[in-house]
Amino acid sequence: MKKHLFSAFTMLFAVTLLSAQEVVFEEYDLDNGLHVILHQDNGAPVVTTSVMYHVGSKDEDPDKTGFAHFFEHLLFEGTKNIERGEWDQIVASNGGRHNANTFLDRTYYYEVFPSNSLEIGLWLESERLMHPIIGQVGVDTQKEVVQEEKRLRVDNSPYGAFFNEILKNLYTNHPYRWGVIGSFEHLASATLDDFKKFNQTYYVPNNAVLVVAGDFETAKTKKMIEDYFGPIPKGAEIQRPNVKEEPITKTKFAKYHDPNIQIPAILLAYRTPGQGQRDAYVINMISTYLSDGESSKLYKKLVDEKKMALQILSVPIDAEDYSSYIVGGLPVGDNSIQDIKKEIDEEILKLQMELISEKDYQKLQNKFENQFVNANSSVEGIANSLAENYMLKDDTNLINTEIDIYRSITREEIMEVAKKYLKVNQRLELEYLPEQKDAN
Q: Which residues cross the membrane (predicted)?
């Protein structure tokens, strides 16, 4: 009886918390096509300004890859009104912090300021859009920065190349195949005009969403947005790649030798639906159940109980056109990567043939409830969610309703989606191996 009362109280608390957490927002378009989303929260004197551009590595010329990520760096070089090297100083001297990131489908810039510095954030982002300087000095400087980043994160980092190797082998035609980092050779050979053309094509207001989240006065903020962003000319309509991949019907095999590792890994990668589709949400639940964290089935089985694996790897890649579910492991002792693969396949088969238990199902629901609450626990997180839901899922209000999708997923649906997408003949098997040593 006490157990039932506790469960009922826990569920009631969760529902109350989620109801109280509803994110209220307003959205509208400027005449130049810039989409604006405002979320007012006067609970703390902090405000986030962010701009997401609908451009990622997917939008690059196959012979000029790496541009989207390169621009993430280049557009901090300065503008007509901000000298080179001053961007960081302006942010810091006004008590703020800032960052940016790039992925397959989008590039995101943001600042977090005390609310009395909101205008600084809006000015900075309008400058990035209206008055960027695409000059040879900045390009040459950032080429060195990007090359060093690639050396640190990919070339000289243990298992650092697995993301690129997965995408390269999982996709044949789609531009996801070259990954975010792209080719440094392409960047090195690109002309200044190539960079200017990329900027003129994608860094336009009608290819962006501006989010202001936090402590601000709505009327005053709308006027500042109009003043700073309204005069920016609308760009030409973006021509997006529309490349379809043929379904994988026969297992793909690949090997990669990494000089930075001593322990091999097996990685199984499945191509799954784009992140806005219902089946993609089910795949996220499957990923969490099988391989996300120390409470997952594969971790408990292979690391804790059988002690066959040093680590279980889980890398779901959510993207606009296609997503990917990647699962794998690092063997320990006398176990091989083939032993790990066999155990993973046994758990996937079990998922395809049997309903998960009610207890495990409830654990999953609780975990996604917690993730949902945590994602929207700060204005910084809310700004990112609002931008991404609008741009990549075409529904800004998912910030309030996405949890309902997870709640509606049934155990039967989990089994059917596992059957549909996690087939042996529909995957890539990547053996990620230590570099071979010369016999001499």
A: none
pLDDT digits (tens, 9 = 90+) for 344-357: 999 999 999 999 99
Nearest to 202 by CA among 335, 341, 102: 102
CA 358, CA 136: separation in Å to the nearest integer? 61
**What residues are paired with 247 via a beta bridge?**
none
Contact 426, 247 (CB under 8 A): yes
Q: Is 121 exposed, middle or buried (0-12, 13-18, 19+ CB in 10 A)?
A: buried
| Block residue for tokens 């509803």 | 22
CA distance 360 to 366: 10
**E strands present in 103-149:** 107-114
pLDDT digits (tens, 9 = 90+) for 54-94: 999 999 999 999 999 999 999 999 999 999 989 999 999 99
Q: Which amino acid is at 161?
A: A
Tokens representing residue 33 in the block:
């096509």
Q: Specify the amino acid at residue 113.
A: F
d(CA 84, CA 88): 10
How many Cβ atoms sit within 10 Å of the Cβ of residue 227? 13
Tell me the C-alpha to C-alpha distance, in Å, between residue 98 and each of 122, 281, 339.
13, 30, 45
Nearest to 64 by CA among 241, 209, 190: 190
CA 341 to CA 265: how far, in whole Å?
A: 10
Judge if 159 and 257 occupy the same domain: no
Domain that holds residue 386: 252-434
Whether residue 237 lies inside any domain: the answer is no
Read off the CATH number of the domain in which 365 is found. Answer: 3.30.830.10
8 A C-beta contact, residue 399 and residue 382: yes
CA atoms within 13 A on the CB side of 148: 7
Q: How far is CA 373 from the centre of its chain?
A: 18
- Interacting residues of 47 by C-beta distance below 8 A, sequence separation 6+: 112, 113, 114, 115, 117, 118, 121, 212, 213, 214, 215, 216, 379
* 156 and 278 share one domain: no
Single pTM value for the model? 0.93
Say whether both 88 and 176 belong to one domain.
yes
**Structure tokens given for 54:** 């609908």
Is the residue at 93 inside a domain?
A: yes
Other CB atoms within 10 A of residue 85 CB: 10
Q: Which two tokens mark 391?
A: 């741009």
Give strand pairing partners of 28: 36
**Best CA proximity match to 34, nearest among 117, 103, 122, 100:** 122
